[in-house]
Structures are given as structure tokens and as C-alpha cells.
Amino acid sequence: MRHVEREEHFHADHVMGLPGVLRGRAVGAIAATAFEEPAEQAAFVRAEAAARRIPLTRAVAGEERRTGSLTWRVLWPPDDAPTPDGPNDASVTMLVRSAGLTLLLLGDLEPPGQRELARSPDASALGAVDVLKVAHHGSAYQDPGLIRAMAPRLALISVGADNPYGHPAPGTVAALRAGGATVLRTDEDGAIAVAGTAKELLVARD
């Protein structure tokens, strides 16, 4: 099976594990944001792709792909988006559908990008999602309107234990729970796997 590897943006915590992701897998392409900052990490991704002769492509809103029963659509960034203030608001954001489940993966998108995403035609037509991968490790920088609009049943926060940034922010966790979401976080729950259908979510924790 060939894979498409996604680089949401080029911050080190998102790209430095790329060699391990590629190891032992047949990867047909690496799709990344067009905003190549920080330059050193973007160059690292280009070098890793070139060394393995893997095409490096640009992910833009509207792109759709399928592998088996799993489909995904890129919601952000749009092709004509203005240059963002930093890499986070250039994060590739995707809507994934599998077995009747909808999963929204926000990368590190911050409130300006989240607000623009919420106003986009794709997001406006989406409605509630089953699973939300919370932006930027659950930091305090979230748009409350997007959280309310997405109304996830399950919110996943990828975050390191005892990190120096205070992630996830208590206010973010509280807002998600107030909207009815079950919140799971990797610093407390370990590795998390989600399966099931639109009627029943199944979660396995390490």
C-alpha cells in the first residue's frame, strides 16, 4: 500500500519525525503547505523527500483523495490565501471521513485562520463533526465560534507531558467539555486509537 504523508506546517515538532514516518513505508508523495517557514525545517523536508525520490507537492483547499473506504478533503489553506503572519496559520487542515465518521484535523491553526476557515463554504456546510483533533496542542489560542460550530463528540489533544507551555490550556479543555465533547489527551491517556461508526465511537488508549 502506498501512502501520502502530510506535513501540516514546517515547525520542528511537526517535521523532525519525518524519517521515522517514512521508514519501512511505500510513500507515493509528501504533501505540505506552501508557506515554507521556518526555512531550515522546510529545507529538511525537501532533503528527506529528495533522498528517497518522493515527490513533494502542495496541499491546497479543495484537494480530495481516497484510499479504500477512507477519504479526505483539504479545507485550508486556500490557494489564494494571503501570506500568513506565521507558519501556524498556514497549517494544512483536513476533513477525513471513514466508516461514517467525520474527523477534523486542524494542525496548529490559530484564531485568525480558524475564523477564516469557519467562514469558508466547506466548513459552513459541514456542521458538527464526530472527532476534532484540537489545534496547537490545545493551546489557549482557539476560536470559540469554531469549537461551537464543530460541536465534536470527541476532542483529541496531542501534547507532551509536563511541557513548558502549559498545554493544554484549562480554558480550552473547559470550552470543549461545555460543548459536549469527551476530551482525551496524550499526556494523560497515552496513544489513542479511534474506530467505530457514526452511531458508536470506539476508543482504545495505551
Automatic annotation (TrEMBL):
All copies of the Metallo-beta-lactamase domain together span: 9-141
InterPro entries listed in its UniProt record: Competence_DNA_uptake (IPR052159), Metallo-B-lactamas (IPR001279), RibonucZ/Hydroxyglut_hydro (IPR036866)
Q: What is this protein called?
A: ComEC family competence protein
